[in-house]
Write a structure and sequence with these properties.
This protein has 4 helices and 8 strands, in the order E-H-E-E-H-E-E-E-H-E-E-H. It has a 4-stranded mixed β-sheet with strand order 1-4-6-2, sandwiched between helices. A 4-stranded antiparallel β-sheet has the order 5-3-7-8, with no helix packed on it. By secondary structure, the chain is α+β, with helices and mostly antiparallel strands.
């Protein structure tokens, strides 16, 4: 299931949904907004429809590549403050190795493949965040 919304993410609810699949192995990743360098807010914008489609395509790729039972991506948009959950990724598979690899694939690839734009506010000044080379390198390790 793919969700992109401004509402807070409840990791417990997300985990319960992926756990209900009856899988033998479940892997999750929960991303939080960091307060690095005095970040007061993180604002995420997206292109509705295109963002969900990109995330759904990644989920399908993971399901096919690792034979998953289920994959969930829930991503928050709008203004978010440090400590808030910005993303939940969950994968369910018959065994742990597939779930772990697929979860890592999804978080690495969504950072580069999904159309999100980030703006950080520090000391009253807002700046758009440029893509990081480290994100590109992480995504590249999953190329065939």
């Amino acid at each position: 299931m793919i969700t992109v919304a401004s509402a807070p993410i409840d990791a417990g609810i997300e985990f319960a949904a992926i756990a209900a699949t009856g899988a033998g192995g479940i892997a999750t990743f929960v991303g939080l907004v960091r307060a690095d360098d005095d970040v007061a807010t993180l604002e995420l914008e997206h292109y509705p429809g295109a963002t969900e489609a990109a995330l759904a395509m990644l989920a399908v790729q993971a399901m096919e590549r690792w034979g998953l039972i289920d994959a969930r991506i829930t991503h928050r948009v709008g203004v978010i403050v440090p400590g808030d959950i910005v993303v939940f990724v969950g994968t369910a598979a018959a065994h742990r190795a597939a779930a772990l690899k697929a979860c890592a694939f999804l978080i690495d690839r969504l950072k580069t493949d999904a159309p999100f734009w980030k703006k950080e506010t520090r000391g009253g000044n807002a700046i758009w965040v440029e893509p990081r080379g480290s994100d590109d390198a992480a995504a590249a390790r999953w190329s065939d």
